[in-house]
């Protein structure tokens, strides 16, 4: 039991530790630069051309070229040189004063990263969980996340594909194919990316049309009869028009088993395609059109009970699962009738998406005008069993449609002087219609039916300026003012007994909330040597408020909005490259002041005493930690990469409902001061890989091993605590030096570690978990022309 009397002392100790860590890091960073001094003896070289992809260099009008003393001289280095567009312009991440990880196309291939969930095992501080095993993921960076299985609220991590934002969480969980790279930005990114990036942002950058005709296909087969085929064709139509058509399909892979129904679960059935068309009618005009769509008819993910199920009876509980990979499903005749299912229906997650975007650029003498317009449509039809039982304890059905229309007009400098700037306006409109049904027949002889629609309108203006005080010292300042209005319409939260609504009055015509809040950034970037940068960055981020919209006997309670959260970030870091030693070492330290953090708490039904999820605001909390990334090639052919993160945090001011009691026959919640308690996050995460390339005549043989480690994630409620684990993987490939084919083998979780990716409970007395995948292997053959 938490001792509330000691909470203030622990809270103060944590605050002191966090601030001391930040101040100490500032003091220690100058010593970091000593190693770079030996590398700076040679005179500065002419800046190298920045290349966005093989064979294609950026025009001088759009490339932001740093002064000579800050040049990253990579020509003699075996450390991979990358270019990112996280600041809405092309630059080396070593020149940007924020924490960025870049997952290259090579890493995506070697680790067989097929979707957003796998991305967390390739970058520090990122955690991704399926909410109770649903098709909607929770994204957390540096402990900043929003755990929600409903469709109407925004995440704390912004997801972008070629700069187009998707604020609907389930709409981005499709396949990752034909990718050039993925950029993971840590910390608030509100100035350039807007609201809902208090945790950070993930940018997916797709491969673009090529100047010469090219194409390729890859076929993959793996354990559990999983298969994947992807391919592309790209090239010019004429001297002004070029295209790229790519697609992928995934099938099979059922890795879970129902011992009662003697049936497997987990088969994938997905397909997606993307058409890119680039048109350049003149040197100053460029148009990029993107048309994309996906169709998913996959099985869902089953949960397992890791403790005996006491929901129905505490004296005669149902047994826990005999294996992590066993799961059970089933529902009542009544709930099946209400939802159009069958009582023995397998869990499934069917998500369809489609959309288009048009980017238009006009280059003038001193600046560039860019307009990015987009439309995306998403549909979610999903059935989940959240109780690991053939009884109707906690069955849920989602039917959601959403569309997003957005337009961003921005102006950016393209000169090579001291001042570099970008500014613009953004408008977005989001519409969502949702029906969320729950089956509790066996438990309460009741089913739930929640219906509503939601519109979100946002408009913002933003600007950011970089000024070179000297060739070695830059100041960066930016601000964004954003207005959002979020409105719920026609909300119904009904309970049904025998198909008859028992509380028809539990509805509300409309509920809305709005805010106008600024985001900001200020950064000092200092380059003491030609391959080293030290920076201090302050940034403020804002996440939208919202509505809980779960089952509740009080629709006013469930539609009572929770407020926007605001995060103030202080970060210091150093980015160092030693070309002579083929070594890159980046490190950062951060401290967060968190106001009105959005936390999932609970309320209690006054009649049954059952717990109901409810989002509330924790008035004050804090977090601190640090990250490192190391890349090293000590000898030709050998490549070593290591990264890690330490994060700690606690609530400074927060009273939460932790239990219930009966007062005059009515169940009420009991509130407890939880100030000083730690925030749910694995304190330490680490990822790494080692690979070596052997030259075998005209061929290359590459082999490597990788790992991902995370410590235990402790939660306010012990049922949500996720034990730590370490996963190991392996990779081998064989291909000609300059050939057009490759044979690859990939192993994931090769030690067959048993672990969980999420834990919790949907109804009291039924502690469930989603198991991580067992050992898998894949063989892939790729051919290009």
From TrEMBL:
The keyword Transport applies. Gene3D superfamilies: TonB-dependent receptor, beta-barrel domain. Pfam families: Plug (PF07715), TonB_dep_Rec_b-barrel (PF00593). Residues 42-90 are annotated as: Disordered. It is found in: Cell outer membrane. InterPro entries: Beta-barrel_TonB, Beta-barrel_TonB_sf, Plug_dom, TonB-dep_rcpt-like. Residues 1-37 form the signal peptide. Residues 306-745 form the TonB-dependent receptor-like beta-barrel domain. It is a multi-pass membrane protein. Keywords: Cell outer membrane, Ion transport, Iron, Iron transport, Membrane, Receptor, Signal, TonB box, Transmembrane, Transmembrane beta strand, Transport. Residues 94-201 form the TonB-dependent receptor plug domain. Belongs to the TonB-dependent receptor family. PANTHER family: FERRICHROME IRON RECEPTOR-RELATED, TONB-DEPENDENT OUTER MEMBRANE RECEPTOR. This is TonB-dependent receptor. It comes from Gluconobacter frateurii NRIC 0228.
